[in-house]
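User: Quick sanity check before I run a bigger batch. Here is a single chain. Can you write out its predicted 3D structure?
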Amino acid sequence: MKFLKTTILAILIVSCAPIRVNYDYDKATDFSTYKTYQYYGNMETGLSELDTKRLLNAIDAKMETKGFNVSENPDFFIDIKSSEYQAVQRQTVGVGVGGSGRNVGGGISIGLPIGQANVNRQITIDFVDENKKQLFWQAISESSFNPNTTPEKRETRLNAIVEKVLTNYPPEK
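Assistant: Done. Predicted structure follows.
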């Protein structure tokens, strides 16, 4: 029942603020050879320690449902990086002054922003085969981010991001 409530809440959040995900992968990769994974030990995610823990827990839960396991001797490693940026503010009010007369014209226009700029977060998840020394799958997600939200909402948001990011992993041939 708790899983159902969390899923419904995640869908509501996703529908209100879209999560955009771009994927890329090596077409020559045989994804069936990868069954175990591990995170890089020196990974600097760019997230707070608590958000990093939430994100890793969400990835572990989703990977487990897909049949992947964490291992000390993994088939591939996961690297995570994130950054925050302010989205370009598109809501403005224009104020203009102009005049003309006898072949002379001029004008001034000013755009005044309305409201606050949105903060977005970009999270990049790389799957790397250390034996071959190559990146074989990557997902980049972009979504809105509120740094003042509650821990429960942060966890729900990160779960929704992971759900959307790992939906198409492994890619179908």
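Confidence is low (pLDDT under 50) at residues 9-15.

User: Great, the batch can go ahead then.
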